[in-house]
Design goal:
2 copies of one chain form a homodimer. The first copy, chain A, is an all-alpha fold and about 525 residues long. Chain A is about 80% helix and about 0% strand. Chain A contains 21 helices and no strands. Chains A and B meet through helix 1, helix 2, helix 4, helix 6 and helix 7 of A and helix 1, helix 2, helix 4, helix 6 and helix 7 of B.
C-alpha cells in the first residue's frame, strides 16, 4: 500500500519537476514557429505603456482625467495580431460607439419630457428592446461575419450611456471625453499595427496559399511513391493510422494536405482582414476573395488526395506484382502533377503568370504513358474467377517479362517458356503467402477485439472478399487521373488570380529560387 | 447617355426598394431556422433590463453606486448563446479578474516604497512586461483554446487597477465594489442561461452528430442513385457545378456532406463548452470528447463520399450500358451503407446501443452481391484496344441479355443470336453517338474559352484519352467498397461512445420514430 502511494507520489513529483521545462520548451516553440508572435507581444507591451503615460504623466493627465481608463481598455481590446484585424476591430469599435451614442442621445431627448418614474420605465423598455434587437441582429450571417464586434460595442456603449445618464447631469461632457480617449486608444493601436513592424493579413493569406500548394504537391508525390514502395513501409503506416491522430501528424502525406482541409474559416478571416489593409491600394481593390476561391479549389483537390491516401490505408490491396507493372507511369504522372502544383506555388510567390504550355505538354505525355501501360496489360482486368486471379496476374507479369527478355536476348520462345512458367509459379506462391500473412494478421486482430465481434466481422469481410484484385489499383489509377481533372480547376483559379491581381508576365530567368 | 443613367438609377432604386423586404425575409429566416435565437435575444434584453435596475431603482443604487456600470458591462460581454459558453466565459472573467487584482496589489505593495517618479517608472515597466508576457501566452495553443478570454480580461483588469491606483487613494474600496458588481453581473448571466430556457452546447453537439450521420446517409444514397440514373440529370449537375458555390447548395449530395467537412472547429468549441455544463453530471464526466472523435471519423468517411461524388462530376465517364450492368448491387450496397448510418443516427438520438448483427449481415450480403456481379462480367475489364472497347461492352451487355432470354424463353442459341447481334450493334452506335455528342460539347467549351487554350487542352485531354472505359466504374465500385471500410471506423467510434456514455441496451420496440 505504502509502496503504491510512494510510487504515485514519485511519478507526480517527476511530472511536476518536468512541467516547467516542458512549458518553457513549448513557449520557445511558439516563438520559433513564428517569430512575429514575439514582436507582436512586445508591440502590445509598448502600446500599453504608451497609453499608461496618459495617466502617469502629470500634464497629460490634467487634460484628460479619469477617462484615460477608456484608452487603456481600447488598446487591450483592439490591438490584434495583424494590421487588417486591428483596423477591422478599430473601425467596428468606432462605428459602434458613435451609433450607440447617437441613439442614446435620441432616447435621452425623448425621455427628458417625462417625470422621474416615467423616465425610468422608458429607459428600461428601451434597454430591453435595443438589447434584444441587437442580439438578434448578431445571428444574421452577414452581420456576424463583418460587424459582430461592432454590435457588441454598440450594445455596451448604448447601455452605459443610457443607464448612467439617469444619474449624471453632464452626460454630454462625459461622452465627449470618452470619445476622445477612445480615439487616442485607437490612434495608438493603429500607429503600432500599421507603422511598427506591421504584420499583414494579406501577406499571411498569400504565403499560406503558396504553402498549401507546396504541401499538396509533396503529399501526392509521397503518396504515389509509397504506394509502389516496399510492403514493410506501407504496413507500418497502416498500423500507425490505427492509433490516434497523433501518429497521423508524423505522416508526411497527412501533413501535406492537413492544412488544406481545415483552411476554410482561416482563409475567410484572413481575406476579410486583408480587405481592410491599405497596403495594396494601388491595385484599387486587391482581389483577396480570389485567394479564397483558390483555397476552395485546393480543398476540392485535396479531397481526391485524401481518397488517394485512402488507397494506401485500405485493407483491400492490389498485389505488389500487379502494382509494379504500372509503377513508372504512375510515378511519372504524380511527379508531373506535383510539378504543376509547385510551379503554381512559385508563380504565386513571385507574383507572375505561370508557364502553362510547358506544363500541359508534360502532363499530356504522362497521361498518355499511363494510358499505354494500362492498355498493354489487358489481362489484368480479366478477373473471371478469383481463385485464378493471382495466376492471371502472374501470367501478365510473365508476359511483360517475356517481352523484355525477347528484346534483350532475342532467343526463341521455347526455351524461355519453361523458365517463365517457373517464375510465374513462384510469383503465384509468393502472392499466396502474402495473402495468408495478411489473413492471419487479421484473425489475430479479431481475437483481440472479442468484445465487438460484429465490427471485426465487417473488417474481415472487406479484406477477405474475393474482389478482382486489380480493382483497387483501378481505383488508384482513376483517382490519379481525377487529380489531373481537379488540377484543371485549380489552374483556372490561379490563372484568374493572376489576371485580376495583375501578375507580371512569365520570363524564364525570373525565379530566384 | 441620359438613357443609360436613367436605367442605372432605376435599377438602383428598384434594388433599394426591395432591400427592406429582403432584409425582413432574412431576419425571419434566421429565426425560423432556429427559434432558440429569438429566445436568446429576449433573454439578453431581459438580463440587461434587470441589471439596469441597479441603476434605475433608488434603494439599489444607493448600495452600489457608480460601479453598477461594471455589472452592465459584464452582462453584455459574458451572456452567450449556450449555457456552457456563458459558464466558460464567466469563469474566465472571474479568474482573470481575481488574478489580475492580486498581481496588481502585489505590484502596488512593492511600488509604495519608492517616490512618485520612481513609482511611475516602476508601474510603466510592470505594464510593459506583463502586457508582453500575457500577449505571448495567448499564442500557446492550450491557453488559446481554453483561456484566451481570461487572459484578455486579466490584462484589462491588471492595467485598469495598476494605472488608476496611481491617482486614486482608496483603491481597495474601488476594487471591492467592482468585484461585487461583476459578481452581480455574472450571477444574472448564470441565472438567465442556466434557468431560463437554457440552451445546452451538449445537446447541440448531440443533435449535430445525429444530423451529420443522416446527411451522409442521404448523400450516399442520392449519389449512387444519380450515378445510375438518366444521363440528363447528371449533365445538368455537371453544368451547375461549373458555377459558383451557390448552385452547389442546391445539390442534395453536397448538402449532405457539406456540414461534415467543415465541422472540426464547431465540434471542438461545442465539446469545450459542453464540458462546462453541469447537466450531465450524474455520469461523472459525460464523454463529450468522444463526440469529437466520432466527428473526426465522420470527416474521414465524408472524404470518401466527396471522392464518390467526384465520380459523378468527372469528365471521364463509364458508358451507361456498362454502368447499368452493376446498377442493382451497387444501389443495394449504398442503401445498406446509408441504412447503417441511419441506424447509428437513431441509436445516438435515442441514446441506446445499435443492433449490429442485423446490420452487418445485410452489409455482408450486399458486398457479396456486388462481388458476384463484378465477377460475372469479366470481359468488361478487358480493354486491350480502345477502339474495340465499346464493342466489347456491347458484347458483354448482349451476353447478359442472352442469359436472361435463355432463362425466360428457353429457346435455342441460333435464332436468338441474330437478334442479339442486331441489338449489340445498336448499343454500339448509340454509345458512339453519345461519345460524339460530349466531344462536340467539349469543343464548344474550348472555343468559348479562347483566352486560356492550355487549360481547356488539358480538359479535352482528360476526356478524350482513351482509357479503358471501365476504369472509372472500377474506381466508383472501389470507392463504394472503401466507404464500407471507413464505415467500420465510424461504427467503432459510435460503439465506443455508447460504452463510455452508458447508452441503454438495444430493444427492438424501443424507437418511436
Amino acid at each position: 500500500m505504502m509502496e503504491a502511494w510512494r510510487k504515485k507520489a514519485g511519478s507526480a513529483w517527476e511530472r511536476t519537476k518536468r512541467a516547467p521545462g516542458l512549458a518553457c520548451r513549448k513557449m520557445w516553440q511558439v516563438g520559433k514557429d513564428d517569430p512575429r508572435r514575439a514582436i507582436h507581444a512586445v508591440k502590445v507591451g509598448l502600446a500599453l505603456t504608451l497609453v499608461s503615460m496618459l495617466y502617469l504623466l502629470e500634464p497629460l493627465f490634467e487634460g484628460i482625467g479619469q477617462n484615460a481608463i477608456w484608452a487603456v481598455m481600447t488598446v487591450v481590446v483592439v490591438l490584434e495580431f495583424t494590421a487588417g484585424a486591428t483596423l477591422c476591430k478599430g473601425l467596428n469599435r468606432g462605428l459602434g460607439t458613435i451609433m450607440a451614442g447617437s441613439l442614446a442621445f435620441l432616447i435621452e431627448f425623448v425621455a427628458e419630457e417625462t417625470g422621474q418614474v416615467g423616465r425610468a420605465i422608458f429607459i428600461g423598455c428601451a434597454v430591453f428592446i435595443i438589447g434584444a434587437a441587437a442580439t438578434y441582429l448578431r445571428f444574421l450571417p452577414y452581420v456576424k461575419k463583418n460587424y459582430d464586434y461592432g454590435v457588441v460595442i454598440f450594445l455596451l456603449t448604448f447601455n452605459l450611456i443610457t443607464v448612467s445618464s439617469f444619474r449624471v447631469s453632464n452626460v454630454m461632457k462625459i461622452a465627449h471625453e470618452r470619445l476622445i480617449t477612445i480615439a487616442i486608444g485607437c490612434g495608438i493601436c493603429l500607429f503600432m499595427s500599421l507603422l511598427v513592424f506591421p504584420i499583414w493579413s494579406g501577406q499571411d493569406l498569400h504565403n499560406s496559399t503558396v504553402n498549401k500548394l507546396q504541401g499538396l504537391a509533396r503529399s501526392i508525390e509521397v503518396c504515389v511513391d509509397e504506394y509502389f514502395s516496399d510492403e514493410a513501409v506501407t504496413e507500418v503506416r497502416e498500423e500507425e493510422s490505427d492509433d490516434e491522430d497523433k501518429s497521423c501528424d508524423e505522416d508526411p502525406i497527412y501533413k501535406g494536405y492537413k492544412a488544406v482541409l481545415d483552411s476554410k474559416s482561416i482563409d475567410e478571416a484572413l481575406a476579410l482582414y486583408a480587405s481592410w489593409e491599405p497596403r495594396h491600394s494601388r491595385h484599387c481593390r486587391y482581389p483577396w476573395q480570389q485567394y479564397v476561391k483558390v483555397g476552395a479549389a485546393l480543398r476540392r483537390f485535396s479531397y481526391t488526395v485524401v481518397a488517394l491516401h485512402g488507397c494506401l490505408q485500405t485493407e483491400i490491396q492490389t498485389p505488389k506484382s500487379c502494382r509494379a507493372l504500372f509503377k513508372d507511369p504512375c510515378i511519372r504522372l504524380a511527379s508531373e502533377v506535383s510539378g504543376v502544383l509547385m510551379e503554381l506555388a512559385t508563380s504565386i510567390r513571385n507574383r507572375r503568370h505561370c508557364s502553362p504550355e510547358l506544363l500541359a505538354d508534360h502532363l499530356h505525355d504522362a497521361l498518355q504513358d499511363l494510358n499505354k501501360a494500362i492498355r498493354s496489360q489487358p489481362r489484368l482486368f480479366l478477373g473471371s474467377n478469383c481463385s485464378q486471379a493471382s495466376n492471371m496476374l502472374a501470367v501478365a507479369a510473365a508476359q511483360a517479362r517475356q517481352e523484355k527478355e525477347r528484346e534483350a536476348a532475342a532467343t526463341g520462345g521455347g526455351g524461355g517458356g519453361a523458365s517463365l512458367l517457373l517464375s510465374s509459379a513462384k510469383t503465384d506462391t509468393s502472392a499466396l503467402r502474402e495473402w495468408k500473412k495478411t489473413r492471419s494478421k487479421k484473425e489475430l486482430y479479431t481475437e483481440r477485439k472479442v468484445l465487438r465481434p460484429q465490427l471485426s466481422k465487417i473488417a474481415m469481410l472487406t479484406c477477405s472478399l474475393e474482389f478482382c484484385e486489380a480493382l483497387p489499383f483501378a481505383a488508384f489509377a482513376s483517382l490519379l487521373v481525377e487529380t489531373v481533372a481537379r488540377l484543371d480547376s485549380v489552374m483556372e483559379e490561379v490563372e484568374e488570380l493572376g489576371r485580376v491581381a495583375g501578375f507580371k508576365e512569365y520570363k524564364r530567368d525570373d525565379d530566384d529560387d
